[in-house]
């Protein structure tokens, strides 16, 4: 079963000094240790990862853009990662969800991620922002502990 990964979990997994580093590591290792365990990632999550991990306002020792690019490429090409590339239907589904759930502009990226996961048949998402994704009935939120 594929576990979708939100940016916050990926950032905490990669950044050793991050406050939830160990929890993220434990969850992802547990998932990958299961038979047929795979992680589902979208390009959106990896682009957000690049943005956050290189931000000196968020981290005392941020990654250089070169290093962050290398990490992102390694993750994207890993054999246990399902690469989710949203197709044209995800745009329409995102708009539909925004309207039907009455979500505002600050929810666009979360909604697009949810729609992309749904289109790929991924029904579980690892995130520290469970409340943001609880509104999507097709997603089970998995919070790293």
Structural topology:
Elements: E1 2-5, H1 7-14, H2 21-33, E2 38-42, H3 43-53, H4 65-77, E3 81-84, H5 88-100, H6 108-119, E4 124-126, H7 130-133, E5 140-142
Parallel strand pairs: 1-2, 1-4, 2-3, 4-5
Helix pairs in contact: 1-2, 1-3, 3-4, 5-6
Along the chain, the helix and strand elements come as EHHEHHEHHEHE
CATH H-level homologous superfamily name: 5'-nuclease
Which bin fits the share of residues in helices? Answer: 40-55%
Please report the first level of CATH classification, the CATH class: Alpha Beta
Q: If helices are DSSP runs of H or I spanning 4 or more residues, what is the number of helices? A: 7
Describe the overall structure.
With 145 residues, this protein is of the alpha/beta class. The chain has a single domain, classed as Rossmann fold (3-Layer(aba) Sandwich), CATH 3.40.50. 51% of the residues lie in helices and 13% in strands. It is built from 7 helices and 5 strands; from the N terminus they run E-H-H-E-H-H-E-H-H-E-H-E. A 5-stranded parallel sheet has the order 3-2-1-4-5, with helices on both faces. Strand 4, helix 7 and strand 5 form a beta-alpha-beta unit. The longest helix is centred in the N-terminal third of the chain and has 13 residues. The relative contact order is 0.20.
